[in-house]
Amino acid sequence: MENNQYSFHTFMFPFQWKINDLNEDLFSEQIKLKNINYAPSNYWERVPIPKTDEEKEGMYNERNYFYQFVHNALYDDGSDDSFIRHFERKIPSSNLAIYKIDSKNGCYELEIASIILNLYSTGVGVLQFHLKNTKYKELNDIISINEYGRRIFPPFYDSINKRDVIAQSIELVGVPSSTLLKEDFNGYTVNDSNKPASFIVELIHEVASNISIEAVVDDRMFVATWYKNTEWVNTLCKQTNDKSEPWSDNKNWYRFIFIDSAASGDPSCQNEQMLQDLLKQATYKRWQNWDSLYGVSRYSLVYLTSDGCPDFLTYNFETEYIRIAEHILVQKASVLRFSAEVSRISTLPNDRLLTSKVDSLYKEYIRFVNQIHFREVSAQDQGIEMYNMMYETMRIEHQVEKLEDEIEDLYHYVSLLEDKRTNKTMYWLTLIATIFVPATVLTAIFGMNNTYNVVNNNNYFLNIFAIQIIAIIVSIVIFIIAFKIYNSKRWRTK
Questions:
Q1: What DSSP element (H or E) covers 171?
Q2: Residue 354 lies inside a defined structural domain of this protein
Q3: What Cα–Cα distance (Å) separates residue 397 from each residue in 279, 336, 393?
């Protein structure tokens, strides 16, 4: 790591993907990674196994950090059936690739360390930009980088003109591409809501050409940032007799965690008690006396430390902790992807394929619960605590429970439709059987052997004939009554 590196920024774009030609297929087919059309590209490479010795060493440490049963959800094993496919953007070593943010607060240029795309077999993916900052050391600059660098479409239509929360432009400079990887947001219209920036879409389609994508978080990418500022750390971390948690009411610490770039410098939370409550919930203070504070929000994972922080601590943040954050985002995106499929299926017409579609959805949900939705991913205390913070902040448990209720309701609904279809079939079978009852009776009656009676007793034949006539009349009456009963029941159940 460079001696003058002030911060490291990771922008993560979680998204849902759909294969364009498979919208009507079973859900298991829609989210199968093998069904994606992977475009032959000179710009991307699938990298299931680290290539350099440094990467191999880092992967060894990572794999030991996480439980073995979590590895399938974190690492690409290189097979066609892998749960995840890991792609890395090729950037020539001779190029200095820059993530350029032109905003009203200034122009920021950060070196691109890597661009990564992970696709998961739950119909979601995460595009990541890993950026080094060696130029800007002031807190306001760090917040501005995070604020304007993460916005991928205008949240409000008037933002196109005002540029209050979006950049003038974001551009990837020095990254080889067949198109210009730049978004200036000038082309957005009222019909372009939730449309990610063009360079985001272009990068993903360089790998997978037959999918459509939809943002998960909203107009913002998730931000993971470590920042070195010794002077500020001394203010926030040094305990005194009067204050054991100096950070607990610090407005700048709030702005850093929640990426609050208000022009006035004041946080958008204008209630002192609420600000303190939010900071207590969002701050991880285990290593406060070692000049280290972590913060977690729905949109960010931040780490503040001093200039003397050992490199391995910031490296751990860039690997294990960012990996945990990505996994939480994948859980959230997957839940939303499943929920969208529940809504789609519930609007489909009642046909015999509906049951198969619900069965396929339920099967993939069980797979999600077993292979992604973990209560714990590491045996390390800090890993357990950090994961729990992010898990609770993103309200994953609540969302999973809600999804389970949605799928259960859908299953009951389809079961009722299936029962109704079965009852209707049974009705017609019963009606047909009832129609043939008189015919059966008549066949039995006229099939009686009357020869003996005619020979031995001439009057007996007349008696038998009368009985047959009465049986026919009774059968017809029974048929008419049964028909009216079933017919009236049919209309009542419509």
A1: strand 169-173
A2: no
A3: 22, 13, 10
Cα(107)–Cα(144) distance, integer angstroms = 10
Tokens of residue 78, six digits: 């290189």
6: left (phi over 0), alpha (psi -120 to 50) or beta: alpha
Q: Which of 330, 365, 394 is the last residue of a domain?
A: 330
- Whether 320 and 452 map to the same domain: the answer is no
Instruction: Determine contact, residues 227/304, Cβ cutoff 8 Å.
Output: yes
Tokens representing 185 are 């947001």
Q: Give the span between the Cα atoms of 113 and 117, in whole angstroms.
A: 14
Q: Is the pLDDT of residue 250 over 90?
A: yes
Tokens of 10: 């990771």
Q: Please give the pLDDT value at position 442.
A: 58
* pTM of structure: 0.85
Under the banding of pLDDT at 50, 70 and 90, the label for residue 465 is low
pLDDT at 58 over 90: no
Report the greatest alpha carbon distance in the chain: 128
pLDDT at 224 over 80: yes
- Residue 2 reports pLDDT greater than 90: no
- Tally of domains in the chain: 2
Q: Is residue 351 part of a domain?
A: no
Q: How far, in Å, CA of 51 to CA of 43, rounded?
A: 17
- The dihedral sign for the CA sequence 114, 217, 276, 262: positive
* Strand stretches in 275-370, DSSP E: 283-284, 292-297, 300-305
> Is residue 217 one of the residues assigned to a domain?
yes
Domain final residue pick, 296, 330, 364: 330
- Which pLDDT band holds residue 138 (cuts at 50, 70, 90)? very high
State the amino acid at position 340 in one-letter form. Answer: A
Are 483 and 434 contacting, i.e. CB atoms less than 8 angstroms apart?
yes
Q: Which residues span the domain enclosing 182? A: 7-229+307-330
Q: How far apart are CA 93 and CA 91, in angstroms?
A: 6
- Listed in sequence order, the residues at least 6 apart from 206 whose beta carbon sits closer than 8 Å to its beta carbon are 39, 41, 43, 44, 177
Q: How confident is the model at residue 448 (pLDDT cuts 50, 70, 90)?
A: low
Q: Which two tokens stand for residue 128?
A: 């990541």
Give the pLDDT confidence of 14-30 residue by residue, as tens digits.
999 999 888 888 999 99
Nearest to 317, CA basis, from 130, 67, 54, 64? 130
Element (H, E) at 214: strand 211-215
pLDDT band at 55 (very low <50, low <70, confident <90, very high): confident
Say yes or no: 322 and 424 in one domain.
Answer: no
Of the candidates 392, 288, 318, the one whose C-alpha atom is nearest the C-alpha of residue 65 is: 318
**Which residue type sits at 180?**
L
Is residue 448 included in any domain, yes or no? Answer: yes
